[in-house]
Automatic annotation (TrEMBL):
Residues 220-279 are annotated as: Disordered. CDD domains: CAP_euk. Gene3D superfamilies: CAP. This is Venom allergen/ancylostoma secreted protein-like 5. InterPro entries: Allrgn_V5/Tpx1_CS, CAP_dom, CAP_sf, CRISP-related. Residues 1-20 form the signal peptide. Coiled coil: none annotated. Pfam families: CAP. The keyword Oxidoreductase does not apply.
Amino acid sequence: MLSQITVLLLHAAVYRLTSADGHRAPFGCTDTAIMDDQEREFAYEQYWGIRTNLVLGNYKDQQGNVPPKPQNMYVPTYTCSIEEMALKLADTCPQTAPTPPANYGLNYQQAPLDTAIGYVADEWTTQIENVTFANPYDGNPKYKEWANMAQATMTRFGCARASCTTFEVVICIHDVPDIKNGQDIYTPGTPCVAHTDCTTSTPAVCDDGLCYVIYTTPVSTSSTTPLSSTTTSAATVTTSTTPKPGTPAPTSSSTSARPSTTAPPAAVTTNANPGPELNQWCPANGGMLDRIRSLALDMHNYRRSQLAKGLVAKNNGNLLPPAANMRKMRYDCELEKAAQAHADGCVGGDSDPATRPGIQENVHSVYISQSTPYRMDAMRESVKQWWSQVRKVEGIGMAVTFKEHHLQSTIQWFTKMAWATTEWLGCAVTKCNSNGNFIIVCRYKPGGNIVNHVVYEKGAQCKCPAGYSCSTDEKLCIVIS
């Protein structure tokens, strides 16, 4: 019963996600020893996931009833000043739920030490499956946290956790008071199809049945002034559409200058996507969305980081050795353009290598289904499928050398992703309605899979070449701008 919801909600625990996807800005919050953009993204994914599952009709309550779909359902923005409020409360290590600031509400939970926010929030998202759902809310405390998270009137939230002596405290604060008995959680109806269906806060765009406020001004990164819970106008909600720090996307090709991570990107005169707010990374490429790009990029980099740390197991259960020279991938719009052209042909096989010298390619086909209804889902499943070959088939061995026979094995999908000196990534997804499937293509430059060459250098992490620095948390080599 949980499989479809797990696909949409638990993927945050599987890979390192981005702090921007075209709908929201880089978080820009002040990191602490515990709180960083990974924690924030894990939390964000749960709030997005609740809304996505309502729109898709994936939830079932204890009686097997599917809650009605919502209309005018907005995805709230993660806000740094609210995170600071949550952190102040969490740092006191309260034994019970503390009192939220005036006009705000909160979710609170104690958890085992070092438990990530995303895992706690995921527990909240599944509460509805163990009760009889009611909207308006019937006061049942067993799904109050779920109801708080799903409130359609919420526009902003922030979360924090603190490690106490024997337990972890997780607190998420919302810019609306806690749900009350008899209060509507959301308005049932038809999920948005067009941008004009999003009317609560404007300007806004509709994407996959959910509404996103269009943000146009830079975000304040560390305001200590509480935000008014009654302010929902888009004019007073401030953020940017800048790509996330650390993995900026070129605007045209791999030689493009890096977009600023502290101010909105320069305006583009033309954008190939009818919703330009969703397509800031590669404005000339209208077939993709920033959030699909960032998903692909971060799923790749998370897995490369795990490999660099020596945490990736072979098919016999033994861990592959750590990687010394693993580079952090960056996004390339020209690679994406070529990948899109191949995907648009709706053919599941690889393109002719002669047409892409020095570039490797992974191609996958995913059936359109209830568990994979959107391009985001198709991209996620494809990256997982390519990487999972390291656990499924005989692989590269402890010498991590690519051999001739690997060219005939699906391990080549994994090694294309894992090749240490591959630095640029570009991906595309096409929905092929005539075939009832998605075609997913990712291209890699410079390409690996060179026979009798090592996939990566073994040894202590972050043996980075000149011009690169070490990302100590990820153990990846990052180009010095």
